[in-house]
Amino acid sequence: MDLLFLSQRIYLGDGSHETPLNGGIIVDTGGIIRRVLRTKQEVNTYLYNTESEAVYDFGDLVLMPGLIDTNVHINEPGGRTDWEGFASATKAAAAGGFTTIINRPTNATPPTVSVQTLKAKASTACGKIYVDVGFWGGLVPGNMEQLGPQLAAGVVGLQCTLCNSAQPVGEEFAAINESQLAEALQQLNKEQATDALIAFHAELPATESLQLPDEAASKCYSSFLRSRPTSMELSAVELICRAAATQPQHRYHIMNLSCAEALPMLETCRRQTGVQLSAETCPHYLALAAEQVPDCGTEFKTWPPIREQANQAALWSALRQPDSTLQLIASDHSSATPGARCLTYGRGRGNFMNAWPGISSLQLSLPVVWTRAKQTEQPLSLAEVHRLMCWQPAQLCGLARFKGCIAEGYDADFCIWNPDEEFTVSGDQLYASHKSPTPYAGQRLSGVVHATVVRGLHVYQQYEGFGQPLGKVLLRKSSAKLVKFVRL
């Protein structure tokens, strides 16, 4: 028998209703939405005439499509599973209202740079994940012959970096240069993968002479910020725009953009070439500012860095424009041990130059974005949250035919939350492998997730905890659609 989900505030995200409706959603035994009841009268008629297996009434909580995060680091398989594994990462996702995440190719050992390593990662994930998981493939020097096979095997796209990652990941997933990018694009053309999605960590090594700080100065955030100037992002964006203008048939996406100065360059490139070019930014670039980072506060360190507060207004302004190049928000979630983050006691504590760059924030993305937006001149609407954290991510990764909105035939993936309820962030609330310190510790945030549903199954409930790890691996079957991976 079918399941029935009720709420007085259902946001469909299908373009038919900009405001939430009081209705219900009928879900079949396969976890697919069979029918949307758009009025209370339709609900009453259905309940009178039909028996359901179960009825879940969420009252006046908002029920909206499950969130999708396109930028999540997970350190499994390999020797750094204690940093973040599939179980802990997907629990954090579920507790944050996310029903699908896309895992980046880095951080696991070995990284995802071939069909063999993709299969190893997918096999490791099966049976451990609480939400659905897709994968980015890797583009590194020397794996040009593996680009087409990775796409054929089901990755959503190919991700590269233009500046070496922090060690030890930098040794395992090396940066590419402009000529290697051109070679990769030619290889994709040769294999007729002409609509491939290429994603970038967009920083180039600094060309200006930068004096590295001494040990004392290394514990000051301003010293670290000077070591990664905006020119690193701007020069990388210039390179990407040159490549896009030369090969406009491919799709290009910039991950975790922090520098608002790059936005006009991206807009100009897209307008002049007609290329499919997009970018994302992260909650920490919208909600945290360099001025508030304390000395030794390495929990704030990430690449590109959190910049000055003056940088935020242009990011928010671009996000509010539906036709902007800055199309979505993703967490760039990257958990690590306290030792790797230079957060343990000792002489090395608080050294920004040595600490692992990455912010563990997947679970907090929705309340951080919602709260910070309310503090701006123009708060986000539910429709804008849906567009930035659900629909556009689904579009980017090829999921939009069965995820991203509440409509007949779509997966019954729901985020149920109270936008007005407040809580104070503390480490014991978080489900990532390493819970504290977090840069949001002690902050008062609005937006509490009460339940997360994946294909009709409750994977998280605020007071009951987690269900079974019934998430599925998502692999692209063709350029047109993604399908669920059969459990290995």
Automatic annotation (TrEMBL):
Cofactor(s) needed: Zn(2+)
Pathway in which this enzyme or protein is active:
Nitrogen metabolism; (S)-allantoin degradation; allantoate from (S)-allantoin: step 1/1
A GO biological process of this protein is: allantoin catabolic process
What are this entry's molecular-function GO terms? Answer: allantoinase activity; cobalt ion binding; zinc ion binding
Q: Which SUPFAM superfamilies does the record match to this protein?
A: Composite domain of metallo-dependent hydrolases, Metallo-dependent hydrolases
Q: Which InterPro entries match?
A: Allantoinase (IPR017593), Amidohydro-rel (IPR006680), DHOase/Allantoinase_Hydrolase (IPR050138), Metal-dep_hydrolase_composite (IPR011059), Metal_Hydrolase (IPR032466)
Keywords carried by this UniProt record = Hydrolase, Metal-binding, Zinc
Q: What is its EC number?
A: 3.5.2.5
**Entry's Pfam families?**
Amidohydro_1
State how it assembles: Homotetramer.
Q: Which PANTHER family match?
A: ALLANTOINASE
Q: What is the recorded name of this protein? A: allantoinase
